[in-house]
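Duplicate of #3305? Posting structure anyway:
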């Protein structure tokens, strides 16, 4: 949940580390800090709050040194204060850490009984004291780190500096990702390749249990048994255009506007002009008794749409479960079942744990991830990537619509294999999917309507989002987006469920967003619209021209969207809701790309 970076070489370490942290700030922004080695001693600068606070501190108190580690924090153990900010240090080592040390209480008690004095509330400080304890017993930095790693329970990626060693940096991973960067006379480590992109595109990923010694001219990698191993060095293609904000004020807006392109790219990877081209999967859809989809947050709403698609198109029983519930539910899973794991980052701790549970139950794991080198991708039997490119805004947008694109292609693949749809119908849906990028462009061109709406709802305390069928998950996603970036309380509900409770909330202040394309369920939703209007609620109707004309109701505002094949409407209807959340947040002046308390990649339970 935090971001870590490290460098050893010849240039000023602080500048490299600060730039790396800027690229990792999406992972957490409660506090930040750096440590380097100056004249053989560890020097630190730490600041509460966003990275800019640390940057200001570094102007006042520059940090020299050509070796260093850095950290941007999303607080888990201990408040977001300077004392709890990483790096944590003793007189012998400094440590940055992403993850959670589960046995830190026992370790802390043991170390305190030996006289170690702790200065923070964090679990990380135990790592610093533990390594120092082994060093005091005469071990080398390498031996002490390897010995400490064996005592740690939990998930972590760490970077460690040692007093008196200005040419050695050690990194290790278990459960949390760690990338190594190979430069010329300089080596780096970081939570992802994005952090290292300004320095190098030659990257190796540590595998589970690995640890590495980084020197200016070489990296030596060890596996969990301490044996020296080699890991493949790949050349990444991350460009500045993919990682910068371009002409946009915020990443979230840039990423919303990238959707036509990335949906098109993703679709092209799965469908040729002649038809569906999903890669061969390590199972036969015909023999699959049930699909279980697991994910968190926005990815789980993509999974919920997919459940409807698998059931409707492929007549394949499908369940969707929130990963944090599924992993502890001890759910029985059918023999020969397939589990689809959906995740942008591919590092979400709950999703990864649920994947492992499903694997242990003998399920084939198919993951839909945006980071192909991620832990989830690597633990899967097959991966179908979303080609969204780096998503930096904390609120997920383009990852979501590319997840929908992949999941619809998978459901169509299953339908073809199971003979539940004709080729003509499959091609018709693919044609509708190919229209989506142009239709989204049309929605984006009309964004002034959404800006108007944002001005009207910005003072609301609550907003209700309602939809039926495939638009029910979109109602949930729309509500989540609004909550995340504008801090307005919002609920997504199946429209038919409104009368069973939420209708009690309706009064003349409550904006009620209806997602109602003119499809087979339209008449039912139209009745719900009347029920809200009859009680004085403010109805905001998102529909196509036909639907808007058909309701004839006195709505507060109508937003006309393109008419499309009902199967692909989730991809269209979510886009104006993303814009609505964005412009409402802008009107309220919240921090759109880094909303309070959130982090992009949730690598803790
Ligand atoms: O990286 P993942 O897709 O696994 O992340 C899952 C959720 O944490 C994520 O979708 C979260 O809900 C986003 N902030 C939503 O905008």
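Output from current build:
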């Amino acid at each position: 949940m935090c971001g870590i970076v490290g460098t050893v070489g010849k240039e000023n370490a602080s500048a490299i580390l600060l730039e790396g942290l800027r690229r990792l700030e999406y992972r957490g922004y409660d506090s930040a800090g750096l440590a380097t080695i100056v004249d053989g001693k560890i020097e630190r600068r730490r600041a509460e709050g966003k990275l800019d606070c640390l940057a200001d501190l570094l102007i006042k108190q520059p940090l020299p040194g050509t070796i260093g580690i850095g950290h941007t924090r999303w607080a888990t153990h201990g408040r977001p204060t300077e004392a709890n900010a990483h790096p944590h240090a003793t007189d012998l080592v400094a440590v940055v850490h992403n993850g959670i040390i589960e046995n830190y209480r026992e370790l802390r008690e043991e170390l305190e009984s030996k006289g170690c004095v702790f200065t923070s509330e964090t679990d990380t400080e135990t790592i610093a004291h533990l390594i120092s304890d082994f060093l005091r017993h005469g071990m080398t930095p390498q031996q002490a780190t390897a010995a400490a790693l064996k005592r740690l329970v939990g998930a972590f990626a760490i970077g460690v500096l040692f007093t008196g060693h200005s040419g050695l940096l050690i990194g290790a991973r278990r459960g949390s990702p760690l990338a190594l960067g190979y430069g010329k006379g300089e080596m780096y480590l970081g939570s992802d390749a994005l952090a290292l992109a300004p320095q190098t595109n030659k990257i190796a990923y540590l595998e589970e249990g690995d640890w590495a010694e980084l020197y200016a001219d070489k990296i030596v990698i060890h596996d969990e048994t301490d044996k020296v191993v080699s890991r493949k060095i790949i050349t990444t293609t991350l460009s500045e255009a993919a990682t910068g904000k371009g002409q946009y004020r915020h990443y979230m807006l840039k990423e919303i506007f990238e959707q036509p392109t990335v949906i098109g790219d993703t679709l092209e990877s799965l469908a040729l002009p002649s038809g569906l081209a999903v890669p061969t999967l390590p199972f036969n859809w015909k023999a699959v008794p049930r699909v279980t989809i697991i994910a968190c947050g926005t990815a789980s709403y993509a999974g919920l749409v997919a459940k409807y698609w698998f059931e409707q198109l492929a007549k394949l029983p499908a369940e969707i479960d929130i990963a944090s519930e599924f992993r502890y539910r001890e759910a029985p899973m059918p023999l020969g079942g397939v589990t689809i794991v959906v995740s942008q980052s591919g590092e979400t701790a709950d999703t990864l744990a649920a994947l492992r549970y499903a694997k242990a139950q003998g399920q084939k794991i198919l993951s839909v991830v945006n980071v192909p080198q991620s832990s989830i991708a690597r633990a899967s039997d097959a991966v179908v990537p979303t080609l969204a490119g780096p998503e930096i805004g904390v609120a997920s947008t383009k990852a979501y619509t590319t997840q929908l694109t992949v999941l619809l292609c998978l459901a169509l693949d299953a339908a073809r294999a199971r003979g539940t749809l004709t080729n003509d119908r499959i091609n018709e849906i693919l044609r509708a999917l190919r229209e989506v990028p142009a239709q989204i462009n049309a929605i984006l061109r009309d964004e002034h309507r959404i800006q108007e709406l944002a001005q009207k709802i910005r003072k609301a305390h609550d907003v209700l989002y309602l939809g039926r069928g495939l638009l029910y998950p979109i109602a949930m996603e729309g509500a989540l987006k609004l909550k995340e970036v504008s801090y307005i309380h919002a609920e997504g509900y199946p429209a038919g469920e409104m009368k069973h409770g939420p209708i009690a909330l309706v009064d003349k202040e409550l904006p009620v967003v209806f997602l109602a394309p003119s499809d087979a369920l339209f008449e039912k939703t139209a009745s719900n619209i009347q029920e809200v209007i009859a009680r004085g609620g403010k109805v905001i109707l998102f529909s196509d021209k036909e639907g808007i004309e058909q309701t004839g109701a006195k709505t507060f505002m109508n937003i006309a969207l393109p008419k499309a094949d009902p199967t692909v409407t989730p991809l269209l209807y979510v886009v104006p809701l993303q814009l609505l959340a964005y412009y409402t947040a802008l009107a309220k002046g919240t921090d759109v790309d880094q909303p309070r308390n959130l982090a992009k990649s949730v690598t803790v339970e």
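Confirmed duplicate; merging threads. The longest helix spans residues 423-445. The mean pLDDT is 94.
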